[in-house]
Design brief:
The chain has 480 residues and is α+β, with helices and mostly antiparallel strands. The chain has 17 helices and 18 strands. Helices cover 35% and strands 20% of the residues. α1 packs antiparallel against α3, α8 runs antiparallel to α13 and α13 packs antiparallel against α14. The relative contact order is 0.12.
Amino acid sequence: MENLKQVIAELSQIVGEYHVLHKDVDLALYDCDAETLDVARPDLVVLPATSEEVAAVIKLANRHKIPFTPRGAGTGLSGGATTVMGGISLVLTRMNKIISIDPDEQLAHVQIGATNTSVSKSSEKFGLYFAPDPSSQVASTIGGNMAENAGGAHTLKYGMTTSNILGAKFILPNGDTTTIGGPYRDSLSMDLLGLIVGSEGTLGIATEAYLRLTPKAKSVETMLAYFNSLEEGGQAVSDIIAHGIIPAAMEMIDRLSFGCVEESLHLGLNLNAGALLIVELDGPPEVIHMERESVESIAKTNAAIEIKWAADAYERTMIWKARKSAFGALGRIAPHAYVLDGVIPRSRLKEAIIEIDKIAKHYELTISNIYHAGDGNLHPALLYDRSKEKEVKAVLLAAKEILETCVRLGGTLSGEHGIGVEKLLEMSYAFAPEDLEAMMRIKRSFNPQDLCNPGKLLPNPKSCGESGKRPLLRYQLSAC
């Protein structure tokens, strides 16, 4: 970066010297998000505390023509916060205030660095919570949720982030500040909020948000069922939905994954089973009673070998711990995991399971399977050692085939992790050139200099070797 000392001095005037990081040891902490295959070190890390500071940093970046990439807690899984063009990593985690909770309107007004869990904890005394619950919800920030349109286990019933956001204070790529939406849903104008949620920080940066809060259910029942195979469990998922039941959540885990959890946490999971299915029902007690009987009957019809219902809140927590701990527990098998999130129609879940198994065998890979089964969101985790080039190549090629399979089966590339750099070149699987050009025109209208999170979401330039100033491992290996 040219004039680095001058830029550091100017940034220090805005956010304070302590909040401008430029030493190699500090920058190394921000060279990727939770998608650790793609690594690109920023030139500077800046941690603003207010919307005004964010706007001022962005205006400075525009004056010096410096790329800037927004970052929350770094829990993203598509490289969305990775600075592939270098420049500034604009870290928003200091902006973590819960500004207000309005229990009458079931509304929270928060800074964008607040975590999912902190919003729910601040709301629980009013019998409310924030519904989106990605596995990283203890750490993941509202800004990251908005950027990727995050979901989680309870998306099936309560929707993605876009269903739970009402408005945002938004800093445009030129540093101007605007408000999109507000405390109340606006249906009288263009849905700009729907445009920015899921735009992965390429259209600007939200700094505050108005969140819809959800009342806690009067009754919750959580079932843990074991099956001999993923195929049987997948069929049970399809049959439950076909029966007209919409659970709060339906999660499925394969034997490899919950076996690692059991070795790590000793939860008493049934290691003789091939698949574990979690079904959570919530609502009025009288309705839940009938749905519980139906769900159990469907599980038995699909050859469930064991069924348990949580007796209390503690047992429910332990069941969910088995799911929430699954990805971390895979570290017992391999040092690295490449986690996808393709989507397929629920009715084709069984086919997807078979195809992923074939791909794993073809590339001689170990692939763990964890599913938001209720909405067809697949999370295959391809296990590998990053120090072994052959394994990295195999992982990248297998990932492409899995995503291609999802699209071929009638699904799409991402359910909640986003495109980032991970699926950039696979966008053509799901979209025609005309569609991609229309998206690019929208991006240019907001971000004409392409300084705001460049090199993400849309494949431009199309040549994978020219995707950034920081050559990524995937491109060095020519897996594209």
